[in-house]
Design goal:
about 160 residues; alpha+beta; Beta Polymerase, domain 2; five-stranded mixed sheet; 5 strands; about 50% helix; about 20% strand; globular
Length: about 160
């Protein structure tokens, strides 16, 4: 099923609206400033311009990912008052995943006054893992955006 021009326009407009909404939420909450100061870079659908829901992914390279620094980042984020759920994982020590290569924060954010909930994923990885992911993202961005839009169309139509 080929994606029509109108469908592509609609999906790209959805992405544009969600990215603008994400930018506002990150600015208003203070989460964006903390995330930038920590050296995190947006990856995934935000960076690839294929957003279809309120989900943001970030990675930050750290030569020797450190649990205390990771925990301190989560503490700073929590103090904004915008987070109602925090999930922390040390994938380096997770016995279920011997290939684990990150420290992870899974966050749910919403204005203290209520409103829409955002899902944020933050990974701290060694620089070589970060570089591999960024290289893959660049390749995917330039080679497969149309294919991603086709998949998104199918997902949206199946809901």
């Amino acid at each position: 099923m080929q994606l029509t021009s109108d469908e592509a326009t609609r999906l790209l407009a959805l992405d544009e609206g969600l990215r603008a909404e994400a930018d506002r939420m990150l600015a208003e909450s203070g989460l964006g400033a903390i995330i930038r100061e920590a050296g995190c870079e947006a990856v995934g659908s935000y960076a690839m311009r294929t957003m279809t829901w309120r989900d943001l992914d970030f990675e930050r390279p750290e030569e020797s990912p450190d649990w205390d620094r990771h925990w301190a980042l989560g503490t700073r984020l929590a103090r904004t008052g915008w987070l109602w759920r925090l999930s922390c994982v040390d994938a380096f020590r997770d016995p279920r995943d011997p290939e684990g290569h990150s420290l992870y924060w899974g966050l749910r954010a919403c204005s203290p006054q209520g409103g829409l909930t955002w899902k944020l994923d933050l990974h701290t990885t060694p620089p070589e893992a970060f570089a591999r992911g960024m290289a893959d993202q660049e390749k995917w961005l330039h080679q497969t955006q149309q294919a991603l839009l086709e998949i998104l169309k199918q997902v949206l139509h199946s809901k």
